[in-house]
Amino acid sequence: MCPDCEDFARTVLLLGQLALYADMAGADLDFVDAVSPSLAVSLPEPPPGMFPDDPDHDPGGGPASLGDV
């Protein structure tokens, strides 16, 4: 696996594990609130070819937030 791919996959995995932890009873939500923004910002650009090319895809065309869904 290329180094960029490995970094991307590791960061996505950590974000997923943090989300699962946040849903657990007794989770330290202050920890989640402190760590999640930094982890999300550290998410590297996906390596080329990670996602299929779709000429009709508009990355800015989704809702502004999940609350708008």
CA gyration radius, whole angstroms? 15 Å
The biggest beta sheet is recorded as:
none
Tally of alpha and pi helices: 2
Structural class: mainly alpha
List keywords for this structure.
extended, 69 residues, single chain, mainly alpha, 0% strand
Written overview of the protein:
- The structure is a single chain.
- The protein has 69 residues and is mainly alpha-helical.
- It has two helices and no strands.
- The chain has helices spanning 3-22, 29-41.
- It is extended, with a radius of gyration of 15 Å.
- The N and C termini lie far apart (35 Å).
Layout of secondary structure:
Layout: H1 3-22, H2 29-41
Helix pairs in contact: 1-2
Task: Quickly describe the structure.
With 69 residues, this protein is mostly helical.
